[in-house]
Structure formats: C-alpha cells, structure tokens
Amino acid sequence: MSRWLNENLSLAIISLLLGFFFWAIATEAEDPTIEETYPQLLPVAIVGLPDRQIAYGAERSHVRVTVRAPKSVWQTLQTDDFRAQVDLSHVATGTITVPIHVTLNKSPATIVNVSPPNLTLHVETIAEKTVPVVVQQVGTPAIGYRADLSIVVPRMVQIQGPASLVTQVVHTKVVVDVQDKWEDVQVDDHPVPVDAEEHQVPHIEVIPDTVTVRAHIQEPGYLRNLPVNITLEGNPAPGYRIANLKVSPEIVTVFGSTAAVQNAPRFLQTQPISLTGATTSLTTSLALQMPEGLYVVQPPTPYVTVSIAIAPIQSSLTLEITPTIQGLSKNLTATVEIDSVVVLLSGPLPVMENLTADEVKLRLDMTNLQPGEYTLKPTVIVSDSIAIENLIPESIPVKIEPLPQREERP
Length: 410
Description:
Blueprint: H1 2-30, E1 33-37, E2 42-47, E3 53-56, E4 62-70, H2 71-74, E5 82-87, E6 94-99, E7 101-104, E8 110-115, E9 118-138, E10 146-153, E11 156-162, H3 163-166, E12 171-177, E13 185-189, E14 192-194, E15 205-207, E16 211-218, E17 223-229, E18 232-233, E19 240-248, E20 251-256, H4 258-262, E21 268-269, E22 273-274, E23 282-287, E24 294-298, E25 303-312, E26 314-321, E27 324-326, E28 332-336, E29 341-348, H5 349-353, E30 361-365, E31 372-376, E32 379-381, E33 387-392, E34 396-402
Parallel strand pairs: 2-5, 9-12, 17-21, 18-22, 27-30
Antiparallel strand pairs: 1-4, 2-4, 3-9, 4-8, 5-7, 6-9, 9-11, 10-16, 11-15, 12-14, 13-16, 17-20, 19-25, 20-24, 23-25, 26-29, 28-34, 29-33, 30-32, 31-34
C-alpha cells in the first residue's frame, strides 16, 4: 500500500494543482478582477485626538482610492463601505504630517493606492478667554434721523480654540445696518472674532454663538416728519362720487427751529382743490400750506402730487319691454306668447335717471326659422354704459305658422 502511495502521490498533487489552476481560470473569466479608482471622494475623519487639544487646517479633507476587486464586488461598492481616517493619539503639538489609513469592509477587495497618502495639519492646546462684543453700524438713517446708541446682549462672550489663534482675538464684532431707517433696529446675529486690524480670526468658537443688538434711531429736535392731508372744496357733479384719492409723497420732512418744529401741526394741508361739478378724474400738483418758520427738506420743493378718481354712482332700473320680431320670412307669421319682458338694468346714475323704455329694444331673431314651436332667448339692445342684470322670463315661447293662402277669384 505504501509503495502504491509513493508511486502515485506526485500524480495526485499535480492533478490537484491542475484542477485549481483551471478553476481559477474559469472563475476569472466569469468574474474578472478589476483595478480602478473609486469615482467618489472619501471624507477623512480625525480620531484619537487627546482632550484639551484641537486639530485644524485640514477641514473637509478628502482622498481618492484605487481598489482591486472582482467585478461582482465592484458593482456593490458604496461610499459607506470605506473608512478614511488619521490617528492623532500619539502625535505632538505643532504642524504635523500623518498617514491616511483607508479600510474597506467588502471582500475580496484590496486598496492598492490612496491619494494623497498623507495629511498635514496643526495640533494645538485649546485655550479660552472672555472678550467684548463691539457693534459696527453701517449706513445712514432716514433724513432727519440719527443712530445714537447700540445695545448688545450679552456684552461679553467666551471664545475658545487653538491657543495661538485665541491670543490674536481682541473682540468680537456684530454689524447692524441702519440705512434709511427711521425707527429702532433689532437684529440677532453671530459675533465674529477679529484681531487688532479687524481681520476675522478662523477656527474660533464663540459662546454663545448669537447675540441681540438694538440700534436706537431718534429724530433731532429741528427735523420732523409730517403726513400730508388734501384740502377739498365742493362736491362732484350729481350722480358722481370720489372713488379714490392719493397723495405723493404721503409724508414730508420739515426743518425749522426747535420751537417751530415742536409747535408744528399734526399734518400739513395742501392748497385747496375744487371738485365742484367734477365728472372726470384728475391728477395735479398742489402746494403745501407751510406754517411760519417751517421749511420742506424732503421732497426738495413744497409741492405734492394729488390724484383724485371721480366715478359715476351706480344705479339700477326695471323696465317692461315689448319684444319685436326680426328676420321672419315674409310667407310666415309668428305668435309671441307673452306681451312684455321685465328687463333689469344697472349703470351710472346720470344715465339711468334719463333712460326711457323707448331706448331699450328687445328683439327676437327668427332668421331661417321654419314653421313650428320655439323657445327663443331675446337680445337686449341698450347703451354700452348700461349692464343687463336679468330678464324675466329669460326665454319666450313663439309659434311660427305659414300665412293662410288667398283664394283666387273666378
């Protein structure tokens, strides 16, 4: 038996190796190995950083990796299958360069290249300090107003970050815009840490991260904003009304002594404008009635533009109209089953007051109609300024018959 094994062992080993070789060839043909660069960038995580230390200068770092794997594995790869990280558990403070380690939780697969292979960053001890919040006002308030005081809550904030950067911060800054403002402005904003030259210092955390700023806008004693009121005389023509009234600008800024401004009326009147007998809208420029000692600053001249819309008062009218026939063939006769139709009309009062039944026509169109019974909707003919609200009834029964034949005399 041992002699047989000795003579055939080498043949068995060769057969086994050949079988594995051909199996590998068949497997590679069905599921070939691919070596390619993964199309997505992988974010790099920082791990192992000791307490009271901070790393910066490599925020949002990414790497690209090349992977060798069977095609079937490649088709299932997701970004979550990779983990790229740098371990800072045993590094010193300062500027350091550490290798990037990438692992892949799919197999069989091998990472053959990482680009870039290393990450350079800064490691420092965390420092803290308290600094004031400074308010910077930008813009100019509305004419005649000034921004006197800004209140910020809280006035002091805590900052923390890399020690070398914390020492550069002299205060935090919040900007409040008062451009064209005429009342107090309040904003909630993030204070920005800055150095002595007002440059922002990066990688600094501010606690709290939001402060409230209120800019006080006030009106000096010699300037004042006053609304404008239009002085009207008379009334529109009978049957007409004021539909709308506008003045531009609605508020003007006046200048004068402190006493004149303090004694100014609650509003400025325009010079009178007459509406007596008006039937049409109008737009005109009117001077302001300026009290002694007051002068207009804005607009540049003491005039305003006034627009007054004049519209007719609407009225309604009910008439009974006898329908008339049109378009009936000469050899036919028509019998209208009702004598009159109630017509409800609306329109401008001056027109409606003078409207008579003779000015309203009610026609039944029988063009091309043959003998028979019909229900026809009449057409109302009236002035374009008048609206037809309703007809009672809306349709009229009509009977059309041939005219009787005349008997011929012998």
